């Protein structure tokens, strides 16, 4: 008997189903009703609802609610600080059965080797990991990246079964002004999905950006911005990560009318936050607590997300649909008690069936050793440029502050929370180093350092003491990447991230516990940020105080360049 024949026979009740969930209700995302019904599963597919079934395996879910598995529509798995295999094991039990990732971070370090690692991993994970090919490698001409991915290097991956399309087109000025490199990538993916990234873009420039076939955006920070983009046909991905937190501002979008045009994403979320709060389940219950309609929220978490990315087989609890299911306690609490991925009940034993994938980029940290003297900044009269950290945002401000001079050097100003920030090229290309100033970390002593530095992932160090900054930076090379905390010449906390300087080889539980210690070590230096290391990771991004697109396709503002 064929697979299809088995599914028909089990759906009609002529044969026992492989698995039947009995005694519960499912959330009908078409009508908004909670429907009391058995749910029959054959292999990887739901074959029966709204009826009574018997099964080879019967599971009592009395008092529980079945919802479609959740879909994270945009994330960088690297920001979880664990490999795709550990991300799978960490997040799937929370009900996230599909993750649409952009390996932008590892691609900026390793190029095609990083893409291949993610595709190989995606073929082994229990959750369905889909990959979008990174569109912006390097992400900017302002910094030295580890790799370059022109269209010629992306095309060999174009037809891979795990590839959905082109990842976030961050170079929106290049799109609007027809940069040849950006246009070549857009042309190649006109018959597939093209993901967007266009913070604050509006008006006719937004129209031009959308005319290129770009369909989604996860960078909206206000409801007004999101509504303009929805009116112009975009699908808005509401983001709540470890640093970028837009859920509260965008909560008014969760209405029955708008729900077909919104989805959920985390973008960047670390294991410590996942352990303390959850993953997409956290977004769901938070949105409902803010007054959002449950029907709109669960649609955004599943069927609306699936349709936005062309995943036609999932997103509903209905016959013929993929058996990605979460059995939860209540709609409001959204605690997943049982999870099915393609009809397989998620258990610790299931993860043991996966084939391993060899890690890559174990020698990617090739920075030269630095000395404390290299962190000095010449004395100057007048105000200095200072990066202004905005807690909960990846964007920063360009501030002008008069800083004290000590001898022939400009000094930190601990009273006004102004520290040094240094970027050190770590790909072994030119050994560049540049130091500037940052406000908002709260450190009163010591230094913290990281090889996670978006988007080029050079070493980034923030500190109150030059000697401690040098120790922290050099230690990162010794452990092949990661995070380091130094206080008074001693290393008080560290985590090794040797996979491209971005991900650990340890379990997510070990990473979670180490991150907790690291956070405490940073707090001991006086840090006032909830996530000092993730905030540090975004510091190398350019400062854009006023958005203006020039006829050359560049942002025509006074950029504060950390590295040339």
Explain how this protein is built.
With 564 residues, the protein is an alpha/beta fold. Helices cover 26% and strands 24% of the residues. The strands form six sheets. It has an eight-stranded mixed beta sheet. A six-stranded mixed beta sheet has the order 3-2-7-16-17-18, with no helix packed on it. Strands 8-9-10-11-12 form a five-stranded parallel beta sheet, with helices on one face. The longest helix is centred in the last third of the chain and has 17 residues, at 508-524. The chain is globular, with a radius of gyration of 24 Å. The termini are far apart. The model is unreliable at 543-564 (pLDDT under 50).
Average pLDDT, to the nearest integer?
Answer: 93
Write down how many β-strands occur, each being a DSSP E stretch of 2 or more residues: 28
Coarse morphology: globular
**Helical segment count:** 18
Report on the biggest sheet.
8 strands, mixed
- Percent strand equals 15-25%
* Ends distance: 65 Å
Low-confidence stretches: 543-564
The quaternary organization reads as single chain
User: Helix coverage percent of residues?
Assistant: 25-40%
Task: Write a short abstract of this structure.
This protein has 564 residues and is of the alpha/beta class. Helix 3 (104-110) crosses helix 4 (112-122).
What is the fold's blueprint, element by element?
Layout: H1 3-12, E1 17-22, E2 25-27, E3 34-36, E4 39-42, E5 45-48, E6 55-60, E7 65-68, E8 70-75, H2 84-91, E9 96-101, H3 104-110, H4 112-122, E10 128-133, H5 151-154, E11 163-169, H6 172-176, H7 180-188, E12 193-196, H8 203-211, E13 216-217, H9 223-231, E14 235-239, H10 247-250, E15 262-265, H11 271-277, H12 280-289, H13 294-301, H14 303-308, E16 325-328, E17 336-341, E18 344-345, H15 348-351, E19 383-389, E20 396-402, E21 405-406, E22 409-410, E23 418-424, E24 433-439, E25 447-450, E26 459-463, H16 466-478, E27 482-487, E28 490-496, H17 508-524, H18 532-537
Parallel strand pairs: 1-6, 2-7, 8-9, 9-10, 10-11, 11-12, 13-14, 14-15, 19-24
Antiparallel strand pairs: 1-4, 2-3, 4-5, 7-16, 16-17, 17-18, 19-20, 21-22, 23-24, 23-26, 25-26, 25-27, 27-28
Helix pairs in contact: 3-4, 12-13
């Amino acid at each position: 008997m064929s697979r299809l024949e088995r599914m028909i026979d089990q759906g009609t009740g002529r044969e026992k189903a492989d698995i039947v969930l009995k005694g519960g209700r499912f959330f009908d995302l078409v009508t908004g009703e909670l429907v009391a019904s058995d749910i029959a599963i054959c292999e990887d597919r739901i074959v029966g609802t709204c009826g009574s079934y018997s099964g080879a395996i019967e599971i009592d879910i009395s008092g529980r609610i079945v919802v479609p598995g959740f879909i994270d529509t945009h994330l960088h798995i690297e920001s979880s600080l664990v490999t795709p295999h550990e991300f799978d094991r960490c997040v799937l039990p929370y009900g996230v059965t599909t993750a649409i990732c952009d390996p932008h971070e590892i691609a900026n370090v390793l190029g095609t080797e990083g893409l291949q690692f993610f595709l190989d991993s995606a073929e082994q994970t229990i959750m369905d990991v889909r990959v979008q090919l990174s569109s912006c490698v390097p992400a900017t001409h302002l910094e030295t990246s580890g790799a370059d991915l022109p269209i010629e290097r992306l095309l060999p991956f174009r037809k891979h079964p795990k590839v959905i399309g082109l990842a976030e087109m961050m170079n929106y000025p290049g799109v609007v002004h027809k940069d040849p490199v950006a246009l070549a990538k857009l042309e190649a993916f006109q018959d597939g999905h093209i993901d967007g990234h266009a913070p604050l873009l509006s008006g006719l420039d937004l129209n031009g950006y959308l005319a290129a076939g770009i369909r989604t955006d996860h960078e909206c920070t206000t409801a007004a911005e999101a509504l303009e983009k929805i009116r112009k046909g975009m699908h808005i991905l509401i983001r709540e990560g470890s640093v970028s937190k837009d859920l509260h501002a965008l909560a008014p979008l969760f209405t029955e009318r708008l729900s077909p045009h919104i989805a959920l994403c985390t973008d960047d979320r670390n294991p410590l936050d996942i352990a303390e709060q959850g993953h997409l389940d956290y977004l769901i219950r938070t949105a409902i607590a803010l007054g959002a309609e449950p029907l709109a929220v669960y649609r955004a978490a599943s069927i609306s997300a699936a349709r936005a990315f062309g995943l036609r087989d999932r997103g509903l609890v209905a016959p013929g649909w993929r058996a990605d299911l979460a059995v939860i306690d209540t709609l409001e609490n959204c605690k997943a008690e049982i999870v099915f991925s393609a009809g397989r009940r998620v258990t610790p034993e299931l993860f043991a069936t996966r084939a391993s994938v060899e890690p890559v980029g174990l020698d990617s940290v090739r920075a030269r050793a630095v000395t404390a003297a290299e962190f000095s900044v010449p004395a100057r009269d007048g105000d200095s440029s200072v990066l202004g950290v905005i807690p909960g945002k990846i964007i920063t401000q360009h501030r002008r502050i008069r800083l004290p001079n000590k001898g022939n050097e400009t000094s930190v100003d601990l009273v006004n929370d102004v520290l040094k920030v240094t970027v050190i090229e770590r790909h072994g290309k030119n050994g560049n180093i540049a130091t500037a100033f940052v406000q908002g970390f709260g450190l009163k002593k010591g230094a913290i350092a990281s090889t996670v530095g978006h988007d080029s992932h050079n070493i980034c160090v923030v500190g109150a003491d030059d000697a401690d900054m040098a120790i922290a930076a050099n230690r990162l090379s010794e452990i092949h990447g990661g995070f380091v905390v130094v206080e008074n010449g001693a290393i008080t906390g560290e985590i090794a991230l040797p996979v491209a300087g971005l991900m650990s080889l340890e379990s997510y539980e070990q990473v979670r516990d180490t991150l907790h210690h690291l956070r405490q070590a940073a707090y001991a230096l006086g840090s006032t940020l909830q996530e000092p290391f993730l905030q540090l990771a975004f510091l190398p991004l350019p400062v854009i105080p006023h958005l203006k697109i020039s006829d050359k396709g560049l942002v025509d503002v006074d950029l504060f360049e950390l590295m040339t």
